Amino acid sequence: STLSTHKTKTKGKMKQLLSSVSLLVIIFLSCTKGMAQSPAQAPAPSGPDNFTGILEKAGQYTIFIRLLKSTQVGDQINTQLNNSNQGLTIFAPTDNAFSNLKSGTLNSLTDQQKVQLVQFHVIPSFLSASQFQTASNPLRTQAGGGSNAQFPLNVTTSGNQVNITTGIVNATLANTVYTDNQLAVYQVDQVLLPLDFFVTPAPAPAPSKPKKGSPADSAAGSSDDASVDSSCAKCAGNVMFYMSLAFVSFCYLP
Question: Furthest-apart CA pair in the chain: how many Å?
């Protein structure tokens, strides 16, 4: 019986040992498999929202979206949003604002003017609604610097109302379409038309006539005097020739 009991204890210990070994093997295999797998990568930070996508989602900006795409300014805006820390502010005219334009206005613009028109609605920095209260005029737009007389864009505020003037158009900032502290999109009730597109430059002044006694006038007088002197000299030469001919003839008369 003692032998039998010893064998039973030995079998029990062997089972415990096998169980422990099996558990260690399983743990080892699990660790090895986990090390073989590539570590999980952290999700890449998401970039700013696509600008034209924001307008499409908001609705009522079909014509402005079409201009953004045809002029490729929309692609430039998305590139700037991904590479600039200053952000952007965009004034988005509604389809109703475009319908208020004089018939044929857009078709009368050249391709370059259409690009400038869209860029005139873009400020190369982020402006929150409250920052319009202290903004310096004229605002600098993508179409040109603030000191450029061709593209003046001035902002005035009255309480919470923001008014925008271009010298041709007086518009009102209706509401905020989108803002994320990098991109601000504001709805405007008028298309912002640059002054330079519709003002005919003054004609160049006609050259003035030289005053009497001026260098030009003196030069003209000198030329006339030279002509007179030349004519007189020619006449004197002719007279001398004929007088010599008459004298010779007189000497040889019989």
Answer: 198
Dihedral, CA atoms, 15, 17, 18, 23, nearest 10 degrees? Answer: 120
Selection from 66, 73, 80, 49 nearest residue 178 by Cα = 49
- Is the pLDDT at 210 greater than 90? The verdict is no
Instruction: Write the pLDDT tens digit of every residue in 151-208.
Output: 889 999 988 899 999 988 999 998 999 999 899 999 999 999 998 887 655 555 556 6
Angle at 194 between CA 181 and CA 168, to 5 degrees: 110
Phi–psi pair at 38, nearest 5 degrees: -70, 140
Q: Give the span between the Cα atoms of 190 and 98, in whole angstroms.
A: 7
What six digits make up the tokens of 40?
Answer: 């999980």
For residue 123, the cross-strand partners are 89
What is the pLDDT at residue 50? 81
For the chain, where are the alpha helices, taking DSSP H only? 2-36, 51-58, 62-70, 73-83, 95-99, 111-119, 215-251
Reported as half-sphere exposure (CB side, CA atoms, 13 A), residue 133 has a value of 7
CB 186 within 8 A of CB 173: yes
Distance CA 185, CA 230 (A): 81
User: What pTM does this model have?
Assistant: 0.60
The two beta strands, 161-165 and 170-179, are antiparallel
Which residue has better confidence, 141 or 254? 141
* pLDDT value at residue 195: 84
- DSSP SS3 for 130: helix
The sign of the dihedral angle between the CA atoms of 64, 99, 142, 136 is: negative
Distance CA 94, CA 114 (A): 17
